[in-house]
Amino acid sequence: MRHLPRRPARYSALAMLVCAPVAPLPAQAAPGCAADATYTTLDFWIGSWDVYVGDTLVGTNRISAVLRGCAVVEEWEDARGGRGRSLFYVEPGTDRWKQVWVTDSPRRPGGVKEKRQMAPAAGGGVRFLGEVSANGVARLDRTTLLPLPSGEVRQLIEVSDDGGTTWRAVFDARYRRRRARRRVPAAPPCRPAGRAAGPRAPPAIGAAPGHRPAAARALLPPPPARRAGRPPGAAPAGDARRR
Q1: 77-91, 132-146, 214-228: range with lowest mean pLDDT
Q2: CA-based max dimension of the chain
Q3: Is the pLDDT of residue 183 over 70?
Q4: Cβ–Cβ under 8 Å, residues 72 and 61
Q5: Does the structure show a pLDDT above 80 at 117?
Q6: In which band, very low, low, confident or very high, does the pLDDT at 239 lie, cut at 50, 70 and 90?
Q7: 3-state secondary structure of 13
Q8: Phi and psi of 6, rounded to 5°?
Q9: Could you tell me which residues are beta bridge partners of residue 10?
Q10: Residue 109: which of 75, 78, 81, 137 has the closest Cα?
Q11: C-beta separation of 39 from 69 below 8 A
Q12: I need a labelling partner for 227 at 20 to 30 A (CA). Which of 71, 95, 145, 241 fits?
């Protein structure tokens, strides 16, 4: 019997690695926070808003989800041009939102705030609570955001000087979504009636010199010189007969 040469062991091991079934890699979670219900708490507030106290427009506010839904940014501008910005994010290990608020007047009372999400407000609203100092006195400061059946949002800011026993409203506003403004196309330029569009035609060669531009008259050949004496066919001097 004829014996075949034996293959080295390293070739056998290589063949086992190539032919072995490959186990599928575990699916990786999609980046971002859209799939986590904790991060949808403020979805009702996202958008561009006109903000009214009663019938008075007091400012505008734009609320945007950023970082793939993992944070929310507030961009406030009041009717006099004052501005404020908030960053909302979920504190790790708490599953509760936190707000950091900064304005362009950070040294005045309320110019900088930090608030944390508290128990849900009545009616399904979201409530934040913090502490501010006014004239050296600490007071509680809470904000309630309440979605309304009309699609508007009510924002109520209250303060308490007795540790939360009683509350006093300092800002009670309604948010109304801003409507997109339609762009009106510009009208075409007007032309004098009866004049066709396009370049202006040059005057006819036979037109009277008074109706021809000076530059065109300069291009015409000079008229022929007249000979001295009587023109052909002219009547002699003193002949007044009609021919």
Answers
A1: 214-228
A2: 154
A3: no
A4: no
A5: yes
A6: very low
A7: helix
A8: -80, 140
A9: none
A10: 137
A11: yes
A12: 241
Mean pLDDT (whole number) for 30-52: 92
- Cα gap 144→126, rounded to integer Å: 6
- Cα–Cα distance for residue pair 93/114, rounded to 1 Å: 18
> In whole angstroms, what is the distance from residue 112 CA to residue 221 CA?
88
Distance of CA 72 to the CA centre of its chain: 17
| pLDDT tens-digit map of 128-149 | 999 998 778 889 999 999 999 9
pLDDT at 59: 97
Whether the pLDDT of residue 238 is over 80: the answer is no
Q: Strand, coil or helix: what is 68?
A: coil
E-strand stretches of the chain: 47-53, 56-66, 71-78, 83-91, 96-103, 112-117, 126-134, 137-147, 153-160, 168-177
Q: Are 52 and 58 in contact (CB under 8 A)?
A: yes
Nearest Cα neighbor of 38 from 86, 87, 89, 75 is: 89
Tell me, what amino acid is at 30? A
